[in-house]
Amino acid sequence: MPSKVEGWKDEVYGTDVREHLYRFAEEGWNAIPEDERDAWFERFKWWGLYHQRKGQESYFMMRIGTPNGRLTPEQLRVVGEIADEYARGPVENPEFGGAYCDWTTRQSIQLHWIQLQDVPEIFEKLEANDLSTIQACGDSWRNIVGSPVAGRDAKEHLDAWPVIQELHETFKGNDDYANLPRKWKVAVTGDTRGSGQAEINDLGFEPASKEIDGEERKGFNVTVGGGLSRKEPRFARDIDVFVTPEEVPEVAGGVSALFRDHGDREDRFNARIKFLVDEWGPEKLRRVLQEDYVEFELRSAGDGLREEYTYNAGRNDEIGDYVGVHEQTDGNYFVGLSVLVGRMGAEDVIELADLAEAYGSEMIGLTQRQNVIVADIAEEDLDDFLSEDVLEYYSPDPHPFLRGSIACTGTEFCSLSIVETKNRMVRYARWLKDNVELPDGIDDFHIHLSGCTASCAQPQIADISLRGMKTRKDGEPVEAFDIGLGGGLGENPQFADWVEMRVAADEVPGYIRNLLRIYDEASDGKESFREFIDRHDEDELNGLAEPEETSYEDPYLGNTKMTWYPYAEETEMDASPTPSPADD
Amino acid sequence: MPTSVHQLDDGAWLSVNDTRQINVSDLWWLARHDFCSCEMADFLAEGFVDIGVDYPNIEGRIAGQCIECGESGVTDWLTLGRVVDPEAGRFFGVDPGSVHVPVRRRRLALPDE
């Protein structure tokens, strides 16, 4: 029997949700019947609105999907202005202030504290600038990820941007694909960095070549069924198919229709296509795709380029994360700026947009490492651009601990998270920078901090993986982390080994320091951290370093989920000022 | 009126009559259980897997792990709270920090869960 969510979706879903959203915006929060709230909140996701957690009733997270994380400077300014005007809550965040934008690990944008009555105005501003929240959450085609600098990057096999645009236009707002059994994440990568991280997506197109009728053709190999959520991580499986760029839409539509028709609609925990691939195997999936969903004869896979990948690849010889100054194919430069935990104050966003425009940039990019790129800087302007004030904080040459740190939303807003994340990761990174030496020659070190097993910060594919947990300290419950080591993508993708469990949050920096001391002693400056971990077996890794209290202080050690907002003066749930009086 | 119960947002919380009642991330003390070998499991709730009603109790099975020994899995059925008067619909939640005794399935879960 279909799940309750499926019943709600059968009643109203997809584009039809919008008129109801506008009606509630007009009539106010209280117009949503109490016994229909869960159903409507589930439906609102399709339009990018996600009700914030307990204690924050009537406030929503709004996600804006930007394919490939690509915007113009004008669009970036609009996002910053919307954040400044509408994304303000009752209490400021002590690290980030009163209004900010989050760049996500799927190259989207998240704003918080959005209220229903503002949604029509926000949609109007977004859509006037060719931006949208459509299908940013919910059970359908999510934001398509890939290289933001496709078509500009010298490290490119083929320009995938036209393909991604076509997919975006075909599958957004398309009733045939609007109601899938679960979320549908697609990556299309044409570069040689592997920046799309197709390996962890439901459907991936990775760069490849194949000889067709005696001619070497550039295109993509197709993978299906990747994902990190729960404790069921899967790398996408190779279904032995090569497609040319022109064939991508038909195959992408075919695989997503197959998922629509065969995915599990009874058990949402079993609904992602990774479980269907587990059940069927890649051979059956390919056969059903061929027989029922694709008109032309599928070719076998071509020669992939994974051995060249540098994005989150754990290599010491090259870092493919776009941070720094890079020459474009047209002779201009793109500059990748490090945004610690992907959160940028609204004023900084507007300032960066103005700056980009002043320098003639036509493109801003958001990366899966939560950073931002400003493209199209002329060579003669580079020095001036690099000396701009805003680049002091959002640096193109950041310390490795600042460069490599990723964090999800956490208990600040998220229902699922077990621990506070972004502010803590900021404090971790700063403490590590001030107190811990990396071995000479190590410029890249990834710490991914995720609040729970949903894995939005992609914890399984980092040098140091942190996953939210609880433990007891002196008998009292405290926020903690399971620690994993040695995960990453690249030529040989691998998930982290979970080696140290339930480490109190204030002992994690000490653990990392102690571990890096051991790495430093063993390091010859050439071996990457991932290689170092890889040559130890599981027994050796367990207990390799000890967690330890240090000078690091953690203000969020208690149960932040019990608060209505972790940074409020009065944090108790009863002190929550929500639902917002503006909506009453 | 019938009592509406379900888990939502990937099992992040238990909803009773469309009101969010119990979150994940609490620690539950479990006694007389076979979740792990600890006499008392110090169980971290990470996700609501099944929800059901056995009037007047609202029951659930929760995915998570014992933070004492590290064993992870899904609990047997736990009483999460009560709706004594279905007409009024008011939910009285249990205190996760008190001691709970999971029981094996005595009946089917709600057909639509």
From TrEMBL, chain A:
UniProt biased composition (Acidic residues): 540-552
Pfam families the record matches: NIR_SIR, NIR_SIR_ferr
Record keywords, A-Z: 4Fe-4S, Heme, Iron, Iron-sulfur, Metal-binding, Oxidoreductase
GO molecular function: 4 iron, 4 sulfur cluster binding; heme binding; metal ion binding; oxidoreductase activity
Domain Nitrite/Sulfite reductase ferredoxin-like: 52-91, 95-128, 326-387
Domain of life: Archaea
Region (Disordered) residue spans: 540-559
Family from the record: Belongs to the nitrite and sulfite reductase 4Fe-4S domain family.
PANTHER family in the cross-refs: FERREDOXIN--NITRITE REDUCTASE, CHLOROPLASTIC
Protein name: Ferredoxin--nitrite reductase
Native source species: Natronomonas aquatica
UniProtKB/TrEMBL annotation, chain B:
Entry-linked InterPro entries: DUF8134
Domain of life from the UniProt record: Archaea
Pfam family, one: DUF8134
Residue ranges constituting the DUF8134 domain according to the UniProt record: 1-107
Protein's name in the database: DUF8134 domain-containing protein
